[in-house]
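Ticket #4471: structure export looks truncated?
Reporter: QA, pipeline team
Priority: medium

Steps to reproduce: submit the single chain below to the structure queue and open the exported record.
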Amino acid sequence: MEPIPLPSHIHYELLLQLLERQTLFAVGGRQREQVQQLIVALRKALSQQKQLEGELERLNLPIEYRWSLNSVQMPTAPLPQEPKL
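Actual output as written to the record:
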């Protein structure tokens, strides 16, 4: 069975840290409130993904965390040639 692709948790963490450490301090008033709502929405999304992961694990369905939409083919090294005698 093919593993179920899910975003890596680091994607959420990176966005949350950027919003909390930089964006939040760069804005004020209504925009600050919007950033706080965005932070809450991201935390909720991460929590919901973790719930989904738990359900998939209970069903013994494999999960594969993805870092991007591009699939990377690992290059294969050529096999060393046998020395000629």
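Status: closed, not a bug. The export was complete when the record was re-opened. Leaving a note from the reviewer for reference: Helices lie at 9-26, 29-58.
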